[in-house]
Recover the amino acids of this structure.
């Protein structure tokens, strides 16, 4: 999973559904690996990206009764299928997160921080989100 864009309080994530499962309502902590600072987000939308090359290929497959023979390395076909299956998820930023020295997460009010693309993604339970909202610290 990777961060594609951050616009306002919406983060767009790109992921391969063969390797990762993401659903609307999932809560994720996106933690910057460099500084132990991150954000808590909730997935609000899942979609398939509209990429011109993929769109053209899908149309070709629909129009042609028999797929043309492709010569080349098998890895190229595997790569093409992986790109074709890629999805994106939009998630709303809910809180800012810091990793304490003991490894625990501390939640606080989001103040505009955005983690880098070099981030790890941690699934968070609904119970932990509710707990974080109740105990939200404003001094992060």
């Amino acid at each position: 999973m990777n961060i594609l864009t951050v616009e306002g309080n919406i983060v767009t994530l790109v992921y391969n559904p063969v390797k990762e499962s993401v659903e609307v309502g999932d809560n994720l902590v996106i933690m910057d690996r460099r500084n132990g600072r991150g954000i808590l987000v909730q997935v609000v939308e899942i979609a398939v990206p509209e990429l011109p090359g993929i769109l053209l290929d899908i149309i070709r497959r629909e129009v042609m009764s028999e797929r043309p023979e492709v010569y080349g390395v098998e890895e190229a076909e595997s790569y093409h299928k992986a790109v074709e299956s890629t999805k994106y998820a939009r998630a709303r930023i809910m809180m800012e997160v810091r990793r304490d020295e003991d490894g625990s997460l501390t939640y606080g009010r989001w103040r505009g921080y955005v983690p880098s693309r070099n981030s790890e993604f941690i699934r968070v339970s609904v119970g932990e989100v509710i707990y974080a909202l109740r105990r939200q610290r404003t001094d992060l």
